[in-house]
Amino acid sequence: MRFLANENFPMMSVVRLRDAGYDVAYRSEDAPGAEDSLVLQRAVREERIILTFDRDYGELIYRLRMAVPKGVVYFRYFPTTPEAPAQDLLHLLSVEGLVLEGYFTVFERTQLRQRPLP
Predict the structure, then answer these.
(1) Distance between the two ends of the chain, CA-based, in angstroms?
(2) Rounded to an integer, what distance in angstroms lies between the CA atom of residue 22 and that of residue 45?
(3) In this structure, what are the phi and psi dihedrals at residue 50, rounded to the nearest 5 degrees?
(4) Which residues lie closer than 8 Å to 116 by C-beta, 6 or more apart?
(5) CB neighbours of 68 closer than 8 A, spacing ≥ 6?
(6) Domain range holding 94?
(7) How confident is the model at residue 31 (pLDDT cuts 50, 70, 90)?
(8) Residue 21, class by beta-carbon neighbours within 10 Å (0-12 exposed, 13-18 middle, 19+ buried)?
(9) How far is the C-alpha of 106 from the C-alpha of 7, rounded, in Å?
(10) Considering its fold, how many domains does the chain have in total?
(11) How many Cα atoms sit within 13 Å of 72 on the Cβ side?
(12) Residue 22: which CATH number?
């Protein structure tokens, strides 16, 4: 599974996911300051799932009908540590039957919601 971590995703979580064997591109390393629409295009081109704390991707995909990536995981909480988002994602990836590809996944502290991508 390939991911594209948005600029607001903590670097320590990117490192933790890479250490776990995942291919994670990081916007802060190779495209700092890039607009969300360009990040979306890159995710589509590289077939990556976007990891973000930015809710704007929902608007870009559903309302503005921009390019649709393989998936989006929107972390809708304030992380307690820089490693927490990686820990949470690794836990999600271990849940049997849970699929991230093809969905806009909203992860909150107490719930998980998924909406099919168009």
Answers:
(1) 20
(2) 18
(3) -80, 135
(4) 102, 103, 104
(5) 44, 61, 117, 118
(6) 2-116
(7) low
(8) exposed
(9) 18
(10) 1
(11) 32
(12) 3.40.50
Per-residue tokens: 23: 């291919």
- How much is the average pLDDT of 7-29? 94
Q: What is the mean pLDDT of residues 63-86?
A: 96
Tokens representing 115 are 């909406």
pLDDT, mean of residues 25-46 = 86
Sign of CA pseudo-dihedral 22, 27, 28, 29: positive
Helices (H) and strands (E) in the chain, counts: 5, 6
CB–CB of 58/74 below 8 Å?
yes
Check: pTM over 0.85? Answer yes or no. Answer: yes
Kindly provide the residue ranges of all beta strands, DSSP E only, lying in the chain, ordered along the sequence: 2-5, 23-26, 49-52, 71-75, 103-107, 112-116
Q: Where are the beta strands (DSSP E) in 8-86?
A: 23-26, 49-52, 71-75
